[in-house]
Write a structure and sequence with these properties.
The complex is a heterodimer of chains A (793) and B (159).
Chain A: E1 12-13, E2 33-38, E3 45-49, H1 59-62, H2 80-86, E4 94-99, E5 105-109, H3 118-130, E6 137-141, H4 159-186, E7 194-196, E8 199-201, E9 207-209, H5 210-213, E10 223-228, H6 247-252, E11 267-272, E12 280-284, H7 287-291, E13 296-302, E14 305-310, H8 313-322, E15 325-328, H9 337-347, E16 361-369, E17 372-373, E18 381-386, E19 391-395, H10 400-411, E20 418-422, H11 436-448, E21 452-455, H12 458-463, E22 467-468, E23 471-480, E24 483-494, H13 505-512, H14 514-528, E25 537-545, H15 559-576, H16 581-588, H17 592-604, E26 615-624, E27 627-636, H18 639-642, E28 654-663, H19 670-689, E29 695-696, E30 699-700, E31 719-724, H20 738-755, E32 761-762
Parallel strand pairs in A: 5-6, 11-21, 16-32, 19-20, 24-25, 28-31
Antiparallel strand pairs in A: 1-7, 2-3, 2-10, 3-4, 4-5, 7-8, 8-9, 11-14, 12-15, 13-14, 16-23, 17-22, 18-19, 18-21, 23-24, 26-27, 27-28, 29-30
Helix pairs in contact in A: 3-4, 10-11, 15-20, 19-20
Chain B: E1 3-8, E2 11-16, H1 23-30, E3 50-52, E4 55-57, E5 72-74, H2 89-96, H3 106-122, H4 129-133, H5 144-157
Parallel strand pairs in B: 1-5
Antiparallel strand pairs in B: 1-2, 3-4, 3-5
Helix pairs in contact in B: 2-5, 3-5
The chains are: A alpha+beta (793), B alpha+beta (159).
C-alpha cells in the first residue's frame, strides 16, 4: 500500500508559542492565531473551546454570529459536518490538556473510540503542537459532559474535523507556557529557546524536561491567552503513518471493553426477548422455577422482556431458554419483505420531469435495498448500578449526554446524579449512536436494586437490534445526443431513527415528535446527499414510511444506497450513449479532487484492461465530509468461483481486487486512514453481495454470523491497494464512513459489467433460497453447543 | 459446588462452578480472564478462539466438565509464555502491520493465526492463500487484508 512519508525539518523553534510576537510573518499567520485558556491547577493545564474554530478576536471574527441554522442549505453549501460543528458554537465548552510532572500530557476526548482511530489521531495532533513524543500523550474517553450539549456526539465522520483546531490550540498554548517557565528558570529569553521531544533546549545546551516544568508552568488564575499555531510546513507527526496507540492492549487481550470491566456485584444479566420485533410480555409461567436454576440470582419482567441475572452468562442463556413467556404482539406483526416493499412503493414521491421531447430518451430504474444489520462484533451491552438517589453507567456510547439525560428521566433522577462512563467500543457502525443496552441495564438494575452487567445474545442482536432500514431508490435520468439532461431520484425508506439527535436530549426528543420528524429526516438527507456529477436538472428527495422497526444509520445514513443507485445509472447511461464509464464520469464530475482520485484509481487499477467473460471492473467516486474517494473493483462471477466450496462458508461472487484512492484534505494519520478505507471496502462488498436481513412474519430470520453474511476471509479481495493522495488542504476531512458508498457502488457496477445485467436488488443474493436454516424464535436464543472439543483445528 | 481443575496459561487452576457451564464463561465470569471475547456463543464468530493442547478451539462450545485436569488451555494472555518472550511473534507481526481497529476480535484472530501456521507446518508446508481463505474469525471492522498480511509475516517469524 502506498503511503506518504514526509521529510521534516528538525527542531521546533519557539516563535509560535503563547505570548510570543509571531512564528514568522507570512500572510497566513492570522489564520493560525487563536484564543486558548490557561486554567488554575497544580500542574500546567490548558484548554480550548471545542467547536468551530475560535479565532483570536479580530473585528470580523468577533462579529461571527453564533447560530444553529434552521433552514440549512443543500449539502454543497453546508454539509452535515458543518452542521455538527456549527451546532457547537453557542454552547461550546472547553477541552483540557494537563501536563504532569512525569512529562506526560493527558487529554480526555469527548468522543467514542469504536475502532475508527480517533484516540490515535487526537494524540498525534497534541504530540505535534506540543513537541512531545506520541507515547507521552495519554488520551482517555471523557465521561458524559452535559455542558458540552451538542458537542459530544461521535458521528458523521466528524471527530477529527471538529477537534483538529481546538486540540492544536490547547497543545500550542501548553508548549508556550512550558517555554515561558523554562525561560524564567534558565534566565534566557523565550525567543532563544526551542522544544523537541518533550524537552526545552537552550542555545547553551541546557535541557529541561516538560515534567520538570509542569508545576512552574501552571497558572494561579484562569486566563484567556492568544496563541499561534505551528506552521503546517513544520509538521513532523501529522501526516505520518502511526500505529494505533492502543495496539499493544488490543493484541495482548488487555484492552478493556464494557463486558471486561469488573464492577463490584455487577453480575451477568441477559434478557429473554419476544419472538417478534418489539413484542411485549403478557405473563411468565415459570418465574420461580427459573429463579431456582443453578447460578441464577434474579428474574424480573421489564419493558423489553424478562431479565435474568446470574453468576455466569452461560447460566443466563440457559435461564432465558427455560422461561415460558406469553408474548403480546410487537410493532411489526405479520410484516415481511414483501409487505414493507409494498408500503415503500406506495410512499414513493412522484417524478416531476414533464413529457419528453421526441429525441430524448430515459433510463428508468428502481433499486431495492433490503434491511441490513449494523450489529458490531461486541453485542449491545452495558453495566448499570442504579441506587436510590444516584446511578452509574458504563457503556460505549457515541451520544453519552443523550443517554445520561434520558436515563435520568426514566429513573426520576436529576441528570447530575447519573454518571455515564464511556468505555472502549467493540465496533459501532451506527449501533452506538443509541444507548439501548444502557437504558435496559438501568431499568433492570433499578427493578432489582442491584448492579447488572447486561449483554445481549448475538441472536437478539440481529433480530431485535437496530437495522439499517429497507429502502427503494427510483431513478430517472433523461438524455439526448449523449448528454444527460435531467436526473431525478426518489429515495423511499423505512423511517430512520434519529433519536440520538445531533447530540443533545432536547434535539433527540424533537426527532421523536411526528411533526418535527419528516422535516428532520429530509434535512439530514439534504445535508448529506449530493450528486458529484453534473447531470442537468437534478432533484433528489426522500420520503419515509413505517415506524415499526428499530432502525438507525449504518456507517453512513443514506449515501451507500443512494450513491450505489446513481453509479449504476451512470454505467447504464454510459452504455446507452456509447461512452466509456470512466471517461463519462470524469467529464461530468464537479470537483477537481474527485476527478484526481478517479484518475488515480483508473490508472493504478488499469481501467479497461482485458478481462475474461464473467469477470469485470467497476468504478465509482464518492464525495462527502470534505473528502473524496474513488474505488475500482474487479469481480469474478464465473461458476468456478461462485460455486467454490469452503467448509461452512457462504461464498458467491468474489471481489478479486480493489484499488482505492482517497483525499481527505489533510490526512492526520495516513496509516489509520488506510485502515478506515479497508474497513469501508469490506462493508461495501458485504452490502452489495451478501449482507442483508430477511423479514418474515414480524421477525428477522438471521440469527448468527453464519446466517448474516458480513464479509469474511473467503470473500476478502486478495489484492487491495489504497492510495492516500498528497494533502490538498490544511484541514482533515472525514474518513470513517467515506469508503462504504464508493465501495458498494463500485462492486455493484463491477457485478453489472461481469454479468451483463444491472443489479437492482441488494444484496444481490437476497432472492436466492435461504442459505441457512433459521433458528426458532421461541426460545429466543440457541442452546450453547457442547462439541467444541470435536472441532479443534 | 463441583470443582474443575485444568491448566490455564501454564498454571493449574481450579474453578468452583457447575459442570455444564461453557469454558468461555468459566474463564471470563469465574476466573476473570477476559482476553477471549463473546461474539456469538455458538462457535461461529470465533472471537473467543483459544488453544486446547495447542489447537484452536472455541471455549464457548466446551463444557467445563469436558475439560480434563491435564488439558492445557491457552488464551491470548498466555500466548507469549509459549515462546518464552514478552510477545509472541504473531503479536509482533500484528503490531508491525497495525492490524487492529476496534480490537474486539483480535485476540481470537491471533490465536487462530498461530494455529493456522502450526497446522500448515505439521503438514510439512507453509501457509497458503487458500489457508487464509478458511480462517473463519469475523472482523466486523473489516481488517481482513491486514490480517492476511500479518499471518504471513507472523509465520515468517515463527520458527
Amino acid at each position: 500500500m502506498a503511503r506518504r512519508h514526509s521529510a521534516r525539518d528538525d527542531d521546533h523553534t519557539s516563535g509560535t508559542g503563547e505570548g510570543s510576537p509571531a512564528g514568522g510573518s507570512g500572510p497566513d499567520i492570522g489564520r493560525r492565531r487563536f484564543l486558548g485558556y490557561v486554567l488554575a491547577a497544580p500542574t500546567l493545564t490548558v484548554a480550548a473551546r471545542l467547536g468551530a474554530e475560535v479565532l483570536a478576536p479580530r473585528p470580523a471574527a468577533a462579529a461571527t454570529p453564533a447560530l444553529v441554522p434552521s433552514l440549512p442549505g443543500p449539502a454543497e453549501l453546508l454539509d452535515l459536518n458543518e452542521l455538527l460543528t456549527i451546532a457547537a458554537l453557542p454552547t461550546s465548552n472547553l477541552i483540557t490538556i494537563r501536563v504532569d510532572t512525569d512529562g506526560t500530557a493527558h487529554f480526555a476526548l469527548p468522543r467514542a473510540e469504536v475502532g475508527q482511530g480517533v484516540t490515535t489521531s487526537s494524540a498525534m495532533i497534541v504530540a505535534e503542537e506540543l513537541d512531545l513524543p506520541l507515547d507521552k500523550v495519554k488520551v482517555t474517553l471523557a465521561d458524559a459532559r452535559p455542558e458540552l450539549l451538542f458537542n459530544q456526539l461521535t458521528g458523521g465522520s466528524n471527530t477529527t474535523y471538529s477537534t483538529y483546531t481546538p486540540l492544536r490550540v490547547a497543545a500550542a498554548l501548553a508548549r508556550g507556557r512550558l517555554l515561558h517557565a523554562a525561560s524564567l528558570v534558565l534566565g534566557e529569553a523565550v525567543g532563544t529557546l526551542t522544544t523537541k521531544a518533550g524537552v526545552v533546549l537552550s542555545p547553551a545546551g541546557a535541557l529541561l524536561g516538560y515534567g520538570e516544568l509542569a508545576v512552574k508552568a501552571a497558572a494561579l488564575t484562569d486566563a484567556a491567552v492568544e496563541v499561534t499555531l505551528k506552521d503546517p510546513d513544520r509538521f513532523r507527526v501529522i501526516g505520518t503513518g502511526q500505529r494505533r496507540v492502543d495496539a499493544l492492549e488490543a493484541v495482548t487481550g488487555r484492552k478493556k471493553f464494557a463486558m471486561d470491566l469488573q464492577v463490584p456485584d455487577a453480575l451477568p444479566t441477559m434478557v429473554c426477548r419476544p419472538p417478534t420485533i418489539n413484542g411485549t410480555v403478557r405473563s411468565v409461567a415459570n418465574l420461580a422455577e427459573v429463579l431456582a436454576m443453578p447460578g441464577i440470582t434474579d428474574v424480573v419482567t421489564v419493558s423489553t422482556g424478562v431479565a435474568v441475572r446470574g453468576r455466569t452468562f452461560g447460566q443466563c442463556v440457559d435461564a432465558v431458554r427455560a422461561l415460558r413467556v406469553d408474548w403480546g404482539p410487537g410493532t411489526a406483526e405479520g410484516a415481511s419483505d414483501a409487505t414493507v416493499l409494498e408500503k415503500l412503493r406506495r410512499a414513493e414521491l412522484p417524478l416531476v420531469v414533464p413529457p419528453l421531447p421526441l429525441l430524448t430518451k430515459a433510463v428508468d430504474a428502481r433499486f431495492t435495498f433490503h434491511f441490513a444489520s449494523n450489529a458490531a462484533l461486541e453485542t449491545n451491552c452495558a453495566i448499570a448500578d442504579v441506587r436510590r438517589d444516584s446511578a452509574e453507567i458504563w457503556a460505549s456510547l457515541k451520544a453519552p449526554i443523550v443517554a445520561q439525560e434520558r436515563i435520568a428521566l426514566k429513573l426520576g433522577l436529576p441528570p447530575t446524579a447519573v454518571r455515564v462512563h464511556v468505555t472502549e467500543g467493540g465496533g459501532s457502525f451506527g449501533r452506538k449512536l443509541f444507548s439501548d443496552a444502557a437504558h435496559e441495564a438501568a431499568e433492570i438494575s433499578k427493578a432489582l436494586g442491584k448492579p447488572v452487567k447486561l449483554m445481549w445474545h448475538r441472536t437478539d442482536d440481529f433480530r431485535q437490534g437496530r437495522t439499517h432500514p429497507m429502502s427503494l431508490s427510483r431513478v430517472r435520468a433523461t438524455y439526448s445526443l449523449g448528454e444527460v439532461l435531467t436526473y431525478e431520484q426518489r429515495h423511499t425508506s423505512v423511517a430512520t431513527d434519529f433519536g440520538h439527535g445531533v447530540g443533545e436530549v432536547l434535539t433527540a426528543e424533537a426527532a421523536r415528535l411526528p411533526v418535527a420528524d419528516a422535516g428532520f429526516s429530509e434535512t439530514m438527507f439534504q445535508l448529506t446527499q449530493v450528486s458529484p456529477y453534473h447531470l442537468g436538472v437534478t432533484t433528489q428527495l426522500l420520503a419515509e414510511t413505517d415506524k415499526g422497526f428499530n432502525t438507525g444509520s449504518m456507517r453512513n445514513i443514506y449515501s451507500p444506497n443512494v450513491r450505489c443507485a446513481q453509479e449504476l445509472v451512470m454505467d447504464e447511461l454510459a452504455g446507452r450513449t456509447g461512452q466509456d464509464g470512466y471517461a463519462m464520469r470524469r467529464r461530468l464530475l464537479k470537483d477537481a479532487r474527485a476527478r484526481a482520485v478517479l484518475d488515480k484509481v483508473a490508472e493504478a487499477g488499469k481501467w479497461g484492461r482485458s478481462m475474461p467473460a464473467g469477470t469485470g471492473q467497476g468504478i465509482a467516486v464518492h464525495t462527502e465530509y470534505h473528502s473524496a474517494v474513488a474505488i475500482l473493483a474487479e469481480i469474478d462471477c464465473r461458476p468456478g468461483t461462485t460455486g467454490r466450496t469452503i467448509p461452512g462458508a457462504y461464498t458467491g461472487p468474489r471481489v478479486t481486487r480493489v484499488v482505492c484512492a482517497v483525499d481527505v484534505g489533510l490526512a492526520v494519520n495516513p496509516r489509520g486512514l488506510e485502515a478506515q478505507m479497508m474497513g469501508g471496502i469490506a462493508d461495501g462488498i458485504a452490502l452489495t453481495l451478501t449482507s442483508g436481513l430477511h423479514l418474515s412474519e414480524g421477525h428477522f430470520l438471521e440469527g448468527s454470523w453464519d446466517q448474516y453474511f458480513y464479509t469474511r476471509q473467503w470473500n476478502t479481495p486478495p489484492e487491495l491497494e489504497i492510495i492516500v493522495m498528497p494533502p490538498s488542504g490544511d484541514k482533515p476531512g472525514g474518513a470513517g464512513e467515506l469508503a462504504v458508498a464508493g465501495a458498494m457502488a463500485a462492486v455493484a457496477c463491477a457485478y453489472g459489467r461481469a454479468t451483463g445485467t444491472m443489479p437492482t436488488v441488494f444484496p444481490v443474493n437476497h432472492a436466492e433460497p435461504l442459505a441457512f436454516t433459521p433458528l426458532p424464535t421461541v426460545p429466543p436464543v440457541p442452546a450453547s453447543p457442547t462439541d467444541g472439543r470435536d472441532r479443534t483445528i | 459446588m463441583p470443582q474443575h481443575t485444568f491448566i490455564l496459561n501454564g498454571k493449574a487452576v481450579t474453578a468452583d462452578v457447575e459442570g455444564d457451564v461453557r469454558l468461555l464463561w468459566v474463564l471470563r465470569d469465574v476466573l476473570g480472564v477476559t482476553g477471549p471475547k463473546y461474539g456469538c456463543g455458538v462457535g461461529v464468530c470465533r472471537a473467543c478462539t483459544s488453544h486446547l493442547n495447542g489447537k484452536a478451539f472455541t471455549p464457548c462450545a466446551v463444557r467445563v466438565d469436558d475439560v480434563a485436569a491435564t488439558d492445557e488451555i491457552t488464551t491470548i494472555e498466555g500466548l507469549p509464555d509459549t515462546v518464552g518472550a514478552a510477545l509472541h511473534p504473531m503479536q509482533e507481526a500484528w503490531l508491525d502491520l497495525d492490524v487492529a481497529q476496534c480490537g474486539f476480535c483480535q485476540p481470537g484472530q491471533i490465536m487462530a493465526a498461530v494455529a493456522t501456521v502450526r497446522r500448515a507446518r505439521e503438514a510439512g508446508r507453509e501457509v497458503t492463500e487458500a489457508d487464509l481463505d478458511t480462517i473463519r474469525n469475523i472482523c466486523r471492522c473489516g481488517t481482513y487484508h491486514r490480517i492476511r498480511q500479518a499471518v504471513l509475516e507472523g509465520a515468517r517469524r515463527m520458527e
